[in-house]
């Protein structure tokens, strides 16, 4: 029952998407090709999960989602650029041909089916059961065909075409993608924005100013520190997230009024202009609804419905030789595949770290922090850990490797039945990392 409930939001998006496409494109033929594409998407992703597993079935889908979002960006800029051209408004009046409509509907169906299946698929990459996925494929196909009947009652004037239809389709697919943590693109987008701003500010102050220059007072440094908060990445990500649809709405709103110079009667002129303005307002419904969908996608990304394994750090001590020795077996099993957190203190200095077994069978030790974000730590869900600061999901296969939002690795060795870490190396690595991420490189104390 719980498994079925997971895909209800996906199927609701699909139930909205198909009638809009069938009304805007070529009717029942669109629904049939979309239904067939949905079945193909479910079947293809099912085979990848069953025979490949790991991250490979998810990476192509996330890449496709990123590409179509970039396509929406390009279309929105084009629509805004062409807004004033005669006969080239943001929405094409004529419907595409049957072949183009069928290809668009089937491609959308394939992607929607694969995204829906990923929501149903277990995150631990376990054995794939065939019956639930066959049921999902049939449900998606039946829903696509059944949803075309109420589409007949959708007013022709409200049926989006051209770029507004693209905005609606992409926004619905983004909702479906962002509900699956491994396919989410909003959190990585926010993280990249935050990283870009951090790097830009670091580089600017290192190349143009002297650190702690007396010209700046402490309160000025406080304002500069706002550029290093997670809100910068969030608001920057939201701007990039919403702007394409806002550009499309603006392009529609700024469409040039039709020429009425050839009409002599004033009443006829006013009637034509009023009709055009009314139609233009109706065409704004699609991008405005797309904004609602994008908001839902961003909310799912920021507040995923997942409980993370986040144990309380266990205090550890060092030997007289300065070594931290943690038994692999004992009160906790370091080789159970779970994240195990620890903290170490010495003379007012403190570091937080965790030890876990990677899918490759290697015990790794990393800081409970990365080299980009502020040190709010990590939690674990299935085959991934998540950075609590920027909400980036990191596959377990990359834990223990440097770079990006990965936890900063700490050298360790396995001696017999214990993991051994040099205490001073741990403290120095923690302090050098936190000094950059919490305060900004060379930017005050």
TrEMBL record:
The highest taxon in the source lineage is Bacteria
Q: InterPro entries annotated for this entry? A: FtrD-like (IPR018758)
Q: Does the keyword Repressor apply?
A: no
Q: Report the residue ranges that make up the Membrane iron-sulfur containing protein FtrD-like domain in this protein.
A: 334-428
Recite the lineage of the species. Bacteria, Pseudomonadati, Thermodesulfobacteriota, Desulfuromonadia, Geobacterales
Alphabetical UniProt keywords: Membrane, Transmembrane, Transmembrane helix
| Record-given protein name | DUF2318 domain-containing protein
**TM regions (residue ranges):** 60-81, 93-115, 130-151, 163-183, 232-254
Pfam families with a match to the protein in the record: FtrD-like
Tell whether Repressor is among the UniProt keywords: no
């Amino acid at each position: 029952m719980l498994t079925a409930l997971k895909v209800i939001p996906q199927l609701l998006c699909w139930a909205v998407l198909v009638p809009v496409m069938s009304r805007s494109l070529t009717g029942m033929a669109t629904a049939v090709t979309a239904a067939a594409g949905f079945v193909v998407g479910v079947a293809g992703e099912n085979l990848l999960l069953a025979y490949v597993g790991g991250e490979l079935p998810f990476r192509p889908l996330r890449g496709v989602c990123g590409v179509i979002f970039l396509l929406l960006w390009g279309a929105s800029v084009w629509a805004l650029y062409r807004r004033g051209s005669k006969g080239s408004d943001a929405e094409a009046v004529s419907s595409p041909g049957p072949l183009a409509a069928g290809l668009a509907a089937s491609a959308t169906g394939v992607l929607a089916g694969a995204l829906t299946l990923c929501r149903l698929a277990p995150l631990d990459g376990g054995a794939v059961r065939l019956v639930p996925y066959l049921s999902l494929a049939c449900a998606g196909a039946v829903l696509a065909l059944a949803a075309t009947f109420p589409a007949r009652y959708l007013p022709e004037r409200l049926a989006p075409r051209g770029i507004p239809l693209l905005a609606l389709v992409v926004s619905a697919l983004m909702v479906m993608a962002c509900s699956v943590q491994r396919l989410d693109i909003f959190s990585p987008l926010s993280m990249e924005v935050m990283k870009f701003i951090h790097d830009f500010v670091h580089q600017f102050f290192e190349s143009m100013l002297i650190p702690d220059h007396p010209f700046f007072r402490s309160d000025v440094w406080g304002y500069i520190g706002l550029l290093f908060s997670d809100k910068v990445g969030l608001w920057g990500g939201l701007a990039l997230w919403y702007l394409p649809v806002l550009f499309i709405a603006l392009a529609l709103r700024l469409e040039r009024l039709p020429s009425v110079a050839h009409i002599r009667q004033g009443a006829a002129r006013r009637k034509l202009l009023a009709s055009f303005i009314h139609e233009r307002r109706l065409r704004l419904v699609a991008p405005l609804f797309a904004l609602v969908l994008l908001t839902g996608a961003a909310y799912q990304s920021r507040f995923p419905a997942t409980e993370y394994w986040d144990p309380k750090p266990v205090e550890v001590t060092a030997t007289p030789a300065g070594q931290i020795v943690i038994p692999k077996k004992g009160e906790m099993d370091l080789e159970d595949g779970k994240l195990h957190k620890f903290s170490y203190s010495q003379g007012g200095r403190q570091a937080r770290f965790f030890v876990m077994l990677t899918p490759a069978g290697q015990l790794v030790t990393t800081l409970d922090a990365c080299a980009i974000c502020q040190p709010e730590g990590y939690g674990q869900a299935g085959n991934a850990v998540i950075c609590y600061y920027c909400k980036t999901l990191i596959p377990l296969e990359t834990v223990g490797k440097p770079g990006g939002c990965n936890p900063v690795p700490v050298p360790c060795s396995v001696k017999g039945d214990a993991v051994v870490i040099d205490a001073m190396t741990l403290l120095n690595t923690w302090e050098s990392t936190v000094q950059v991420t919490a305060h900004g490189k060379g930017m005050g104390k």
